[in-house]
Amino acid sequence: MHTKVNILGIQVSSITNGNLLDAFSKAIANKQFTQVAITPVNSIVAALKDPKVKEVYNASEYVLCDGMPVKWASHFLGNPIVERITGLDLLPDLIQFAAYKNYSVFLLGASPGVAEKLKQVALAKYPNCNIAGIYVPPFMKTFTAEENQKMVDAVNAVQPDIVLVSLTAPKQDLWIAQNRAVLKTSVCVGIGGAFEVMAGLAKRAPKWMHNAGLEWFYRFIQEPKRMFRRYFIEAPIFIPLVIKQKLFGSKHYN
User: In the chain, which ranges are E strands?
Assistant: First the structure.
């Protein structure tokens, strides 16, 4: 068990990266399905708009704090989250962890060629890393039943210890929740766009911007059209709602 912090009705995990990896080891040893959602501000806003997304996040075993605004909100609300764990930080740690522990990993999603490049990078750094399979579904707003079954079958054919799903949030989190009863794996992580960064196909913000909470600005400069809505329409909604929670308590966000 670990502490969770209520931020606008989403129970966000307060856990260190080290303790999270230890929990993965236990889940794999016990063959216990564990869903991990990584939630920046836009994911929390999406959950406010869609009860199904909120239900999925709150049913996930781990909901990680991805984004300084989420961490700042926890401090403002008087219940600080101990560590920010982004997908960009977790992915390389997970690959290293899997190589060290001899866990098999399945890469699901991202654009064509990205997962293959990530596999090459992972094997160059950790030659014993077991990337057990890769599947890249076609881009669809909603997967057909036939395509969904292909995705499940691809995973189950190798029964990996860890599945990393790169379909963007909350789509990836909904997919994991929808299929958790039939997926033959232990740890399933909605990892977002981290494949491209670790594969060297996209750049991450400099460390000083990361530490200062300005990584969002770097991403906006790189992809202004795609990120405008996230950072200038959805994110501003977050701040007044957190203030409202501070003033009136969490009863409106349960």
Answer: 3-7, 10-14, 34-39, 62-65, 104-109, 130-135, 162-166, 187-190
Question: How many domains, in total, are found in the chain?
Answer: 1
Q: Which residues pair with 187 in a beta bridge?
A: 34, 162
User: pLDDT digits over 69-89, tens only?
Assistant: 899 999 999 999 999 999 999
Rounded to two decimals, the pTM is: 0.91
Residue 88 domain boundaries? 15-207
Cα–Cα distance measured from residue 15 to residue 26, given in angstroms and rounded to the nearest whole number: 15
CA–CA gap between residue 19 and residue 97 (Å, rounded): 12
Tokens of 117: 């490049």
Query: Under 8 Å CB-to-CB from 64, ≥6 apart: which residues?
Result: 12, 13, 15, 20, 36, 37, 38, 39, 85, 86, 90
Q: Following DSSP, what letter does each residue of 157-201 receive, concatenated? A: HH--SEEEEES-TTHHHHHHHHHTTT---SEEEE-TTHHHHHTTS
Residue 25: inside a domain: yes
| 223 is a domain residue | no
